[in-house]
Amino acid sequence: MLSAEKLTLSFGKTVALAGASATVHRGEVLALVGPSGSGKSTMLYCMAGLLDPDGGKVEFDGRILTKLNDDVRSDLRRREFGFVFQFAELVPELSLRENVSLPLELNGVSRREREARVDELLDRLGIAEQAGRRPAKVSGGQAQRAAVARAMAHRPRVLFADEPTGALDSQNGTLVLDALLDLAAVDETAVVLVTHDPEISARAHRVVQMRDGVATS
Ligand code: ADP
Ligand code: MG
């Protein structure tokens, strides 16, 4: 569904990607692993169309992402992709429920449809009981699960996650990974995640090892 072929990208003299390739299919969780500075985040951002590689191509669903103009690409990104980062980055003034609902509201989804979708997600992620609380009033794991729910709200075809469990203890990390695996299995979403944690990558469907900007599967 999404493939990156021979990506190269340098920041000044620093070579971040030196011909890295990776593919993820529908319903599959792909883990990018490797030492710090090996190019994992850069690879993820290029695959997500957030960064332009110097060379190589990214193909999504038969379209060459790297050739689309900015407007078309950001529109595609908004509709088809979801993002989760290391720190939940929820809106602090809003409850978990309101945070999850926000992208649907911004996309003009009706209140009835929004409420049904948000309830379903809060339930699937096991945070229904905390839904009325603000992010500061729940655990880091619960906030991160709300961030995953928010990223899933518009039913993206690909979800990108940069160290989504990096700030969590192993129990909460497992719960977040469970949510991502469930998303892949139930909604057939492709998931691309960056992780340092061997317990997380061991449960991914496909692992790509990054080293000095090169990827090996
Ligand atoms: P990882 O996520 O595996 O730790 P990154 O993809 O963040 O690695 O970085 C790969 C290399 O590119 C590193 O040497 C890093 O310092 C460099 N790099 C990444 N982003 C930038 C940037 N915006 N400006 C300059 N150098 C960068
Ligand atoms: Mg990184």
From TrEMBL:
It holds the Pfam family ABC_tran. SUPFAM superfamilies: P-loop containing nucleoside triphosphate hydrolases. InterPro entries: AAA+_ATPase, ABC_transporter-like_ATP-bd, ABC_transporter-like_CS, ABC_transpr_LolD-like, P-loop_NTPase. Residues 2-217 form the ABC transporter domain. Gene3D superfamilies: P-loop containing nucleotide triphosphate hydrolases. GO terms for cellular component: plasma membrane. It comes from the Bacteria. Signal peptide: none annotated. One of its GO terms (molecular function) is ATP binding. PROSITE patterns: ABC_TRANSPORTER_1, ABC_TRANSPORTER_2. Keywords: ATP-binding, Nucleotide-binding. PANTHER family: ABC TRANSPORTER RELATED, IMPORT ATP-BINDING PROTEIN. This is Putative ABC transport system ATP-binding protein. The lineage of its organism: Bacteria, Bacillati, Actinomycetota, Actinomycetes, Micromonosporales.
